[in-house]
Amino acid sequence: MIIMINVGMYYKVKAGHEKEFESIFEKVLTTLKEAEIGFKNGRLYRDVKTPSEYLIYTEWDSIEKFRAFMQSNNYKSTVEHGRTIIEGRPKHIILTPSSE
After folding, report:
1. Beta bridge partners of 9
2. Using CA atoms, how far apart are residues 69 and 60, in angstroms rounded to an integer?
3. DSSP bridge partners of 6
4. What domains can you pick out in the chain, each with its CATH number?
5. Is residue 85 packed enough to be buried (19+ CB in 10 Å), middle (13-18) or exposed (0-12)?
6. pTM
7. What is the pLDDT of residues 28-62, one digit of tens each?
8. How many C-beta atoms lie closer than 10 Å to residue 20's C-beta?
9. Beta strands at 39-46 and 5-12: parallel, antiparallel or unpaired
């Protein structure tokens, strides 16, 4: 039985880099969907009160597949570029379905 998980990733983008962040998100989303690595879908949300803050909400087949992605070279190269446009460290929250 596959138990899908959701991951919320919170980012604060440096001023003036919002469009770049949004563009990179679209490219990464396409790449993840084509990679067949357990990624199901992702959405980008922007805080209306603090437009430099974003939430990326993703769906994965399993926590193991998400963790494997987090250890991949593709993720590491994305993070490396992100350091130039992100303020501070992003925060990731893994949400699992309840057992009810």
Report:
1. 56, 92
2. 10
3. 59, 95
4. 5-95 (3.30.70.100)
5. middle
6. 0.84
7. 899 889 988 999 999 999 999 999 999 999 999 99
8. 14
9. unpaired
